[in-house]
Amino acid sequence: MSTRKNERKDASLKILNMHIPSHILMIFWVFIALFPVYLLIINSFKQRMAIYSNPFGLPGVWTLDNYIYVVQGGNFFQYFFNSITVVVVSLATILLLGSLAGYALAHWRTRLSRGIYFFFILGMMLPIKIATIRLLELMKIFDLFNTLWSLFFVYIAMGLPTAVFILTEFIHGLPRDLYEAAYIDGAPRSKIYYGIVLPLIKPALATVGIYNLVPIWNDLWFPLIFITQEDKKTVLLAVTRLQGQYSTDWPRVFALLTLSALPVILLYLSMSKQFVTGLTAGAVKG
Amino acid sequence: MQTTVQRKTSSKNRLNPGGRYWIWYILPALLMYCLFMAYPMLDSVRLSLYEGTTGARTFVGFANYVRLFTDPEVSARFWGAFRNTWVFFAYHMLVQNVLGMLFAVVLTNRTMKGRQFYQTVVFIPCTIAVMVTGYLFKLILNPQFAGPTLRSVGLGFLVKPWLGSEKTALNVISLVSVWQWVGIPTMMFVAGLQGISEDLLEAADIAGANSWQTFWYIKYPLLLPVVGMIAILTFVSNFNAFDIIYAMATPDGAPNYSTDLIGSLFYRYGVAGKHPIGIPEPGVGAAISTAVFFMLLAGVVPTLRATQGKE
Amino acid sequence: MRKLTALLLAVLMMAGLLPALTQAETVKLTMGSWRSDDAEKVQALLDKYKELTGVEIAFQPTVSDQYNATLRLQLDNGTGPDLYYSRSYAVGQELFDAGFSMDCTDIPGVKENFPESALDAWQTPDGKVFAVPFAAVSQVIYYNKTLFAENGLEVPTTFEELIAVSKAFKEKGIEPFANGIASNWDILECVYLGMLPNYVGGADQRALYESGEKKMNDEAFLKSLQDFAELAQYLPEGFESLTNSDGPAMLGLGRSAMFIDGSWTCGTFADYGVEWGAIAFPAPEGAAPAMCFHPDMGITGNNATKYPEEVKAFLTWLATPEGAQTTSTYLPQGFFPMIDAPITFADPAVTEILALNDGKVLDARFVWAKLLNMYTPMVEQLNALTKGETTPEAVAEVFAAEQAKIVGQ
């Protein structure tokens, strides 16, 4: 009896102990992480040159001019829509194709499949910029200039190596008994894939999604090369419009980026919900 | 896609349908990858055997590689960038990834409050465009503009041209990059830690292990594949990193090439050329990428073998 | 399933967004450039041109320091713009030699209406002109009139006076200059190459160095380096980290008295409400004053354009005095047209800066014409010199050695 009580006391003490340092650490990091973000936001409300006279303080004169310029001048909503479309379609396709391939490569363990897996991983190690010339030619052949398709294909191809890498390993690490039982019972593999495997790998899917989210959203190079038509440009490309040869209109850039950070954060939140629940635990027991 | 399964066949066949079945799962990804990534990149590797830009390409065999490794100026840049990139990588492995694991351990503690908030805050820096991060930190580190503010709070000793000094520039830029990307390993470790079975942790708890022991003897070994994966991803992305140098220094790796990374070296030779000429040498650029590719391979393959596929 | 449906929906969305491709009627040209800063102004100019001729031209600038590479990629690929800005001298010539830029020699007015010094920047050795000269910039020193007045100091007219004034400001706790070395190019293009013509002379003297007759470690160069080193002592605190874009802010906020830069910045000071003026880089006592007046932008046509007639018409218009006058109303402040005809500017400050050219020997930036390979070594040496890591004599020797490599001796 007494040992039980002691254990519980120890447990609660443990809990208390673990949290205060953790909170201190996290709050410390919150300040470090958010200070530049604070700068970003307050400086978007300043007039152009006020950044230099007062970089860290609140604006002496709050102005919405930068936001107004961003929203009115030019096709802001169009850019926004384009960026979101590109990101969502690319991510969805990467996850779909990557998980299918990962599923197969995790189960089909032969020399050939190892070779294919390795072939995918090689793609992680070369910077895709060296392929620009050939990619330009391909886009010309398929007549994809000034379309969002050119961006889809490039980003999907870019995201597949890491997707295959992460998903294959993750699926390989899943305990087999979770679904092998279903096979033996006669369920077709594709149903098993959709019904059992996919839900199990949600954290890995979310990881791959988030990992690719930011590079695709913030990519500048390919929209620069493939798209010159106004209504197909992405948000980041609009930022380059504000970059001059000798000086950049930073408050406007900040306004634009503050606005465009919102969808990214929303996408992140929706994907990171997958981390909250630990799924495998209950499944094994049940 | 469906194989014809006869009732007579043993269950073994169902469980191991073999390549002819699996290939269909892989084909869409493979096609997309081959057409839009593998083929262009391999073709660009082929470019490393040529000199000159379009219209005036001449085959020169391995001359670009020879130049890369023996020409005094080019090879000095190459090895300088190589060395700097390793320093950059060290910061990411030792600071970013360790912090990431630390945060992840804190964030997967089920009884702690405010985890979702902390997790989102940790990730927010990742969403800021690198160009803007670079500018903001340049402002914070600017002796003339940040100086007065720092002095007024008694931090006058921090007023130094951090980004202008060869000794400190790379370190500072590396730390800024760590600041920005720590959310990614955090997220991956969180995913990894979530996957650790409850039973194991309960058993450890009952056996009387404290949190430190639980971490070292149970969580960390089970996280090894994730650690390996993150190491590989960090390694590869650091060797391609360029945006932060562009944003905080110049594509030349100023001051005096001390912040020149492989990524910026490649940019100068393969993409935009040197200021003010601005004409790249794609052959040399491709040679740099190919050479680095083999070096990366030499690092990635052993790491993969050591950390993956353990049951 | 859900994901496939999402994909299908996305595909449908895309299909709905594909623009109608039927627009064969109006002639629409595109113009590429590295000046995103001027997007509004140049588009206004092009709209004016449309009023006059009915031909529509869309201005499509790209990221400035990737312009050369991006343009090259587009030209290689056949997707280049119909008109584009051409860099001066060797860099622009490269595109002509590769067959992309149009031959502008026979465009009426090109050879007649521009002075030799302007054409020189866009001409091949055998006399073919590959772009119509559009704008030049000059290297000046901006100064804060209020600070000079408050401290009772006169605007310097010789190099010695410049140093004296700098000393005086420093003693009063005001930074003499706002220049730094973090933007690698600033110290070379604005400061050193801005002062060099005072020591070396004009284009005819430059030619002697380019041929190797004169060496870059001779007296003239040595003096220029010594004076540069002296000037560098008055760079602001933390100059190793200061970039070119910090300069106008420092001058505008009254933190520094002077800023060595180019004429292109003159429009930015209005935002600070500061009283500013500009002077040419003063020459040493007794030397002939010179000015670095650098041909910067030319415009040329794409040989592969579908509308050669319209392109040539636009280029012709640029080369006429009327066209040039119209253009100058839309040129960004600090960029000067090079046409050989009197041009009036609305902004008196701009006129004032252009007037600095009067009575001076003019030349482009020294290394641009034939010595571009000197660029990187010069930047490295100058950076080291500002930090006190080397001596003017040693730098001069390095210059001569690099020059020998290029000239082939």
Q: Compute the gyration radius of chain A: what is it?
A: 24 Å
Strand content of chain C: 5-15%
Question: How far is the N terminus from the C terminus of chain C?
Answer: 73 Å
Helix content of chain A: over 70%
What oligomeric state best describes the polypeptide chains here? heterotrimer
* Helix percent band of chain C: 40-55%
Domain count of chain C? 2
Q: Which CATH architecture of the largest domain in chain C is right? A: 3-Layer(aba) Sandwich
Greatest contact pair? A-B, 103 and 101 residues
CATH homologous superfamily caption of the largest domain in chain C: Periplasmic binding protein-like II
Q: Report the portion of residues of chain A in β strands.
A: under 5%
Give helix and strand order of chain A, one letter per element, not per position: HHHHHHHHHHHHHH
Q: What's the shape of chain C?
A: globular
Backbone structural class of chain A:
mainly alpha
Number of strands of chain C: 9
Order of helices and strands of chain C: HEHEHEHHHEHHEHHHHHEEEHHHEHH
Largest sheet data of chain A: none
Low-pLDDT segments, ≥5 res of chain A: 277-286
The helix count of chain A comes to 14
The gross shape of chain A turns out to be globular
End-to-end CA span of chain A: 31 Å
Describe the protein.
The complex is a heterotrimer of chains A (286), B (311) and C (409). With 286 residues, chain A is mainly α. Chain A has 14 helices and no strands. In chain A, α7 runs antiparallel to α10 (202-217). Mean pLDDT of chain A is 81; it is low at 277-286. Chain B is mostly helical and 311 residues long. Chain B has 14 helices and 2 strands. Chain B has helices at residues 11-15, 19-47, 63-70, 72-107, 115-127, 130-140, 147-152, 169-181, 183-194, 198-206, 211-239, 243-248, 262-271, 282-307; strands spanning 50-51, 58-59. In chain B, 47% of the residues are buried. Mean pLDDT of chain B is 84; it is low at 1-12. Helix content of chain C is 44%, strand content 14%. Chain C has helices spanning 2-17, 39-53, 67-77, 89-97, 110-113, 116-120, 145-150, 159-171, 184-195, 197-200, 203-211, 219-232, 246-252, 308-318, 321-330, 348-355, 375-386, 392-407; strands spanning 28-33, 56-61, 83-87, 132-144, 175-177, 256-262, 276-279, 290-301, 361-363. In chain C, α9 packs across α17 and α12 packs across α18. The model of chain C is unreliable at 15-24 (pLDDT under 50). The A-C interface holds A 47-49, 52-53, 85, 88-89, 92-93, 95-96, 132-133, 136-137, 140, 145, 147-149, 194, 220, 224-225, 228-229, 231, 240-248 and C 1, 3-4, 6-7, 10, 13-14, 17-19, 30, 34-37, 39, 60-66, 70, 73-74, 76-79, 81, 244-246, 248-250, 252-253, 264-265, 268, 271-272.
